[in-house]
Amino acid sequence: QVRLEESGGGVVHAGGSLRLSCTGSGFVFSGYAMSWYRQRPGQKRELVAGLRRADGEIEYGDAVKGRCTIDRDDAQNTVYLEMKALKPDDTAVYYCHAWNYGPLIYWGQGTQVTVSE
User: Fold this and answer.
1) For 29, 38, 77, 116, which has the most beta carbons within 10 A of its beta carbon?
2) Three-state SS for 110?
3) DSSP secondary structure letters along 40-76
4) 61 and 48 in contact (C-beta within 8 Å)?
5) Beta pairing, strands 92-99 & 105-107
6) Backbone dihedral region for residue 54 (phi beyond 0: left; psi -120 to 50: alpha; all else: beta)
7) Which of 9, 18, 19 is nearest to 73 (CA)?
């Protein structure tokens, strides 16, 4: 059974930092591109950061460039999202996403991040 389990969400003050983790199981983690998406209240789900393979290509959403870092540890089947200088506008449910470069896509259940003033 495929699972993506996010953790690390919570409430943080504006200007603070947070680190999200997502651990995968039930699939060959190293063969998947891993990404973080978020859905802000009343808005569409959007890309936060994507790490296409362990050796490389990274993409960040425009709203978080310079404030987020994505990383992965294939030995631990885990992808991380480090966020800093958080703003109230970063309040969202953050979702872990796995893609096998083909037809398989998996989503986590999401973790809530709330940034207070």
Assistant:
1) 38
2) coil
3) -TTS-EEEEEEE-STT--EEE-TTTTTTEEEEEETTT
4) yes
5) antiparallel
6) alpha
7) 19
Digit-coded pLDDT (tens) for 14-33: 999 999 999 999 999 999 99
Residue 45 to residues 39, 55, 67, Cα–Cα distance (Å): 4, 26, 19
Burial class (CB in 10 A: 0-12, 13-18, 19+), 7: middle
Rounded CA-CA distance 5/95 in Å is 9
Edge-first strand listing for the sheet containing 68-73: 3-7, 18-25, 78-83, 68-73
pLDDT tens, position by position, 32-87: 999 999 999 999 999 999 998 756 799 999 999 999 999 999 999 999 999 999 99
